Amino acid sequence: MDFHPDPVATAPLPFDPVADGPEVRRWLLYLLRTDHSHAYTNQALSAIRFLHRRVLMAPAPVADIPRAKRKKGLPKVLPQAEIKAFLDALKSPKHRAIAMVLYSGGLRVTEAASLKVSDIDSDRGQIHIRQGKGRKDRYVMLSPVILNVLREYVRVERPHDWRFPAGHRRDRHITSRTIQQQVSKAAKAAGIEKRVTPHMLRHSFATHLPEAGTDLRYIQELLGHSKISTTVIYTHVTKREARKVTSPMDRIFEEED
Q1: pLDDT score for 242
Q2: Rounded to an integer, what is the distance from CA 238 to the centroid of its chain?
Q3: 152-175, pLDDT tens digit by residue?
Q4: Among 38, 57, 106, 211, whose CB has the most other CB atoms within 10 angstroms?
Q5: Dihedral sign from CA coordinates of 134, 38, 107, 159
Q6: How far is Cα 107 from Cα 129, in angstroms, rounded to an integer?
Q7: Which residues are catalytic?
């Protein structure tokens, strides 16, 4: 596979990172203005700080430069009609099973990719997520629909250790990149114009649950969030809560009637 390095990362720096604090600041602002992510920009700043503190063993002239604040947007979700159309577009039993696991349990893509055969507990109706984000284990529900899909997939694939092996390499699990490619391909086949990612399926799971009346504390446990404030954001995109609110305009006309 050809490797195409990032031209910004490989180009000579337009300043002396050892002594030029103001120039570093201008360069970081340039990264943000040219559509590089906040995480990428902060990583560049951390690298320059590391150069001073760990390699040169000298005070960093960039120590007072604050890290870029991450943009806080609402999660992007798919309505259930589009979820169904997307799943129907997945013709491979393996990729269909992965996508359904992602949505039905709210798994992160790395968690779904690294599932083992032993992680599916059909007797208890649970999926065991091992060493998720923050190196925490948790359990999510295993729906009867997913169990049937997995059984159909197993009859075709015959996995041994990894639930979703990488092609013919039984000693490795499928990569997150491969899952992303298949998700994107299926979304286009389903006629979905927006960019669909595996994480969007997790967001959709977390949004559709409160719409159905599921308690936020339980959703927090299913998602593996350490703070309830991380889970609360999904209430901002649910339809159920919006439907509960009566517009003041409605009350005005009700009084006239």
Answers
A1: 46
A2: 18
A3: 999 988 888 999 999 777 789 999
A4: 106
A5: negative
A6: 8
A7: 108, 133, 199, 202, 225, 234
Alpha helix segments (H runs only) across 52-92: 80-88
User: Residue 44 has which token pair?
Assistant: 């560049």
Yes or no: say if 203 and 75 are a contact pair by the CB < 8 Å rule.
yes
Distances (CA, A) of 129 to 83, 164, 247: 23, 14, 43
Token pair recorded at residue 224: 């593996």
Q: What are the pLDDT digits (tens) for 188-198?
A: 999 999 999 99
The tokens for 65 are: 């430069």
Q: d(Cα 40, Cα 14) in Å, to the nearest integer?
A: 17
* Rounded alpha-carbon distances, angstroms, from residue 49 to 14, 18, 53, 59, 86: 17, 10, 6, 9, 44
Tens digits of per-residue pLDDT, 109-132?
A: 999 999 999 999 999 999 999 877
Give the C-alpha separation, 39 to 32, whole Å. Answer: 10
Helix (H) or strand (E) holding 169: strand 169-173
Cα separation, 32 vs 41, in Å, equals 7
| Residues 41/31, Cβ–Cβ less than 8 Å | yes
| Angle between the N-to-C axes of helices 21-33 and 38-50, in degrees from 0 to 180, rounded to the nearest 10 | 160
End-to-end CA distance of the chain: 71
